[in-house]
Design goal:
about 170 residues; alpha+beta; globular
Length: about 170
């Protein structure tokens, strides 16, 4: 498999992966699936310094079919100007491809992009004590900052968010 920058042609596959987590999971606190128009706007917002990348099979036939194994992006960490050198990552792997190294490939390439774009800090906000996501981020140099207790509520239960951070290596 390989990664590449996402294009509008990937929007439906990205939305499918994300919306399943909206309706069935706790990796996102969104409660309503993205519409095609919302997904298109999201795609436009995730280019340039805040890219979205996709993991695809390293096979031209599979690539041509639009198969997306997972996706990852950088987003602004906060809107105030002093935070402009910090970003937050998001990583979602299609449920049929979890546990096969897709997330690690995506995060490694995303961290490299963050460094290339000159970001100093990358944050990961991991909902519901996602052990696999915590381990993945630790593998890529992220350290635990803390846990925000019961900051979200989904499916009738309170959810914590684990905050991890990676500082750019000079």
């Amino acid at each position: 498999m390989l990664t590449r920058l996402a294009t509008m042609a990937d929007a439906d596959a990205i939305a499918e992966i994300y919306n399943r987590e909206v309706t069935d999971g706790t990796a996102t606190f969104d409660m309503v699936p993205r519409s095609p128009a919302e997904q298109a706007a999201w795609m436009r917002d995730h280019s340039g310094a805040y890219p979205c990348i996709v993991a695809v099979p390293d096979d031209s036939e599979a690539e041509a079919s639009g198969t997306v194994l997972g996706w990852a992006c950088l987003s602004p960490y906060r809107t105030r100007p002093a935070y402009s050198t910090s970003v937050e990552d998001s990583i979602y792997v299609h449920r049929d491809h979890q546990g096969r190294g897709v997330g690690s490939l995506l995060l490694g390439d995303l961290v490299a992009l963050a460094d290339e774009h000159g970001f100093h800090a990358v944050f990961a906000r991991i909902a519901d004590a996602g052990a696999a996501s915590v381990a993945l981020h630790a593998k890529h140099g992220f350290e635990l900052v803390g846990v925000e207790r019961e900051v979200g509520r989904k499916f009738g239960r309170w959810l914590d968010v684990t905050l991890m951070q990676r500082l750019r290596v000079a």
